[in-house]
Amino acid sequence: MTLEFDYNNMMADIIGEHGIDEKVFESGKDEIAKAYKKVIDGCGKGWQEWADIPYSDYSIYDEMIAYMSDIRKKASAFVVLGIGGSALGPIAVVQALLNMRLNELPQSALKAACLPKIYIEDNIDPERMNELIELIDLKTTYFNVITKSGETSETLSQMLVLYDLMKKAVGKEEAKKHFIATTTIGKGTLYNLAQKEGFKTYGIGLGIGGRFSVLSNVGLVPFAVMGIDIKGLLKGAKDMSEDCKVADIFKNPGLLTAYLQYQAAKKGANVSVMMPYADSLKYMSDFYCQIWAESLGKAVDLEGNFVHVGQTPVKSLGVTDQHSQVQLYTEGPFDKIITFLAVKKFRKDVLIPKDDDIDACDFLKGHTMGELLNHERVATEYALKKAGRMNFTITLPEVNEYTVGQLLAYYMFETAYTGALLNIDTFNQPGVEEGKKATFAMLGRTGYEAKLAEVNASVKKAKYTIGK
Ligand code: PA5
Questions:
Q1: What is the pLDDT of residues 185-208, one digit of tens each?
Q2: Catalytic-role residue among 245, 365, 385, 436
Q3: Is 436 a catalytic residue?
Q4: pLDDT of residue 463
Q5: pLDDT digits (tens, 9 = 90+) for 428-456
Q6: Which of 6, 97, 207, 309 has its CA 20 to 30 A from that of 133?
Q7: What share of the chain in percent tops pLDDT 70?
Q8: What's the predicted TM-score (pTM) here?
Q9: How many whole angstroms separate alpha carbon 96 and alpha carbon 400?
Q10: What CATH homologous superfamily does 4-43+245-422 map to?
Q11: What is the CA angle 89-240-250, rounded to 5?
Q12: For 52-229, which CATH superfamily applies?
């Protein structure tokens, strides 16, 4: 059971002049080899520690699985506090592998399935936070605070609010049992606090950046609580990692699509759309948008030259966005690649009945909704191809732990290869760090006085405002 990559509609001999000429594989073989070597040599080292995770001895997770299954039995709700890479992977996997309406199931059904509700709080909107507080029963709610740096204001503020409420609700001794920290061991505010308060703590490897951390304890803790087969997920990731380490580009999906994206960007395709045709995969687009944008949107190359590279990732959902964005994709500028995520076999399907009372819609009757969804995807691929627009399709035989693990590993390798082709640092995020520092300064954090003066001077100079 493995993913299939169909890139016919990327190629000029199939879609015409706006596609990629097959000759680039020959003319680019040196740069392909260089990028391949860079990623392969880096696996397991520096910021590529994520590449080793699927190869770990899975018995190391037995303690976590046991601990989390105990929480699963006690919890009415499990709440993840995190942002960016500390939330988007968990959101994507939970959406893919759990009942999409889990939180709306009646209490009796949740009890029978022995599952808590799950909330992944990746923002600090005060209205949303108030509504969470109104909703949950603190006595039976457990929190997983996730921050690699241990310093992110959003996550720390959420924790401070909820830990305070928990202490008031159940007392300090009990409250600490409701908090699990996932962070860098030995450093950072969350680590120090977790030690002091006595929270159960899981580490994040030093060389695993946020957006590459979904298969680390960042994702595994909430997945284990929700009964997701984490070993199946890792097995899928391992098998895809093997495929993405093959030297022959035509057998290596990560390298192949990275090179196609790289070539397409050179031809002016500066927008990369991720369009799953399955609601279960809806948040894979968010995961993709982050890994693509934060990893590849860079000002300088590895020699320090200004390059300002990076495609803009866009999330889209089939068929919903056929009725919103596809007009633009078909007739607008030739500046996009559309990646479709297809599912061959849906886990549940719905038959459109042959209702003889209704004297209309005969073309729909007797088909399933899954069939309709897939026909609409093929129809969109066809329309884009006819309009000469680059697109390719990744097909999952079914959505399960194994295929989701494969997809996640593929995204990580594809991103790493694209960064290597662009000759940039894929794993840093100086643009995000600048905003984090400015936030610390505005909140009056010690050590950020000079930054505050800089921010104030910049903000006050703004003069183009109306409506004051
Ligand atoms: O990918 C990244 O490194 C970022 O998106 C981080 O995940 C995000 O900024 C949150 O950081 P942290 O996990 O340190 O709280």
A1: 999 999 999 999 999 999 999 999
A2: 436
A3: yes
A4: 75
A5: 988 888 888 888 899 888 999 999 898 88
A6: 97
A7: 99
A8: 0.96
A9: 8
A10: Glucose-6-phosphate isomerase like protein; domain 1 (3.40.50.10490)
A11: 125
A12: Glucose-6-phosphate isomerase like protein; domain 1 (3.40.50.10490)
Give the number of residues written for the chain: 468
- Is 415 a pocket residue for ligand 1 (Cβ < 6 Å)? no
| Per-domain residue ranges of the chain | 4-43+245-422, 52-229
Q: Indicate if ligand 1 lies below 6 Å from the C-beta of 210.
A: yes
Distance 84 CA to ligand 1 centre (A): 5
Q: Which of 294, 381, 401, 414 is catalytic?
A: 294
Q: Which atom of ligand 1 is nearest to the CA of 291?
A: 1
- Residue 337: C-alpha distances to residues 13, 20, 258, 317 (Å): 16, 11, 12, 15
Q: What is the pLDDT of residues 203-214, one digit of tens each?
A: 999 999 999 999
Report whether 146 contacts 80 (CB < 8 A): yes
Question: How many Å apart are CA 112 and CA 9, to the nearest integer?
Answer: 47
Confidence of residue 109 (pLDDT cuts 50, 70, 90): very high
CATH topology identical between 4-43+245-422 and 52-229: yes
Give the neighbor-by-neighbor strand order of the sheet with 336-343: 4-6, 391-396, 336-343, 271-276, 312-315
Quick check: CB of 429 below 6 Å from ligand 1? Answer: yes
Task: Verify whether ligand 1 is closer than 6 Å to residue 216 (CB atom).
Answer: no
**CB of 209 shorter than 6 A to ligand 1:** yes
Candidate from 266-270, 410-414, 445-449 with smallest mean pLDDT:
445-449
Q: Which of 86, 158, 287 should be mutated for ligand 1, with most atoms under 8 A from CB? A: 86
